[in-house]
Amino acid sequence: MGRKHSGLARLAPMARYVLAPPAVVAALAAGLWVLGGVLAPGRWWAIGLSVAWFFAVSALAARAVKRDPRLRVPVRGTFVLCAVLASAGFYWTSVRETRASTRPWTRRARRWHWRSARRPCKATRGLR
After folding, report:
1. Tag placement on the chain: N or C end, fewer CB within 10 Å?
2. How far is CA 33 from the centre of its chain?
3. In terms of pTM, does the model score above 0.85?
4. What is the spatial distance between Cα 94 and Cα 100, in angstroms, rounded to a whole number?
5. Rounded CA gap, 45 and 93, in Å?
């Protein structure tokens, strides 16, 4: 009796080589959507769960590469590309500043109140 294989191991080597990158992308996208977008109660939870999901998929990809060394380039290349794109997307939407100041009206309002407190208004100028 031969050893029974399941999943990707039963596919032909070329099919595994072709289907590995879309499988990595699908796993990362599905996990990021579910963990980071649906289940996370807040922003920091979403970031933490997304990072944890990337580590989990990285461990699973390492196991797949260890079983079949021919998958090293497509699996690791796809994973690194997805990690770079996810990092760039995180930077573009969360870290990068799009305004010169977060609350520019606050400074103007304080400056205006500070100046108006020192000078009397025109209506009361002659009464003092």
Report:
1. N
2. 10
3. no
4. 15
5. 16
- For residue 112, give every residue at least 6 positions away whose Cβ sits within 8 Å of its Cβ, in sequence order, or none: none
pLDDT in tens, 86-127: 999 988 888 876 665 555 555 544 444 444 555 555 665 555
Question: pLDDT digits over 49-69, tens only?
Answer: 999 999 999 999 999 899 888
Which amino acid is present at 95? V
Measured CA to CA, the distance from residue 50 to residue 52 in angstroms comes to 5
Report the distance separating Cα 95 and Cα 89, nearest Å: 10
d(CA 22, CA 101): 41
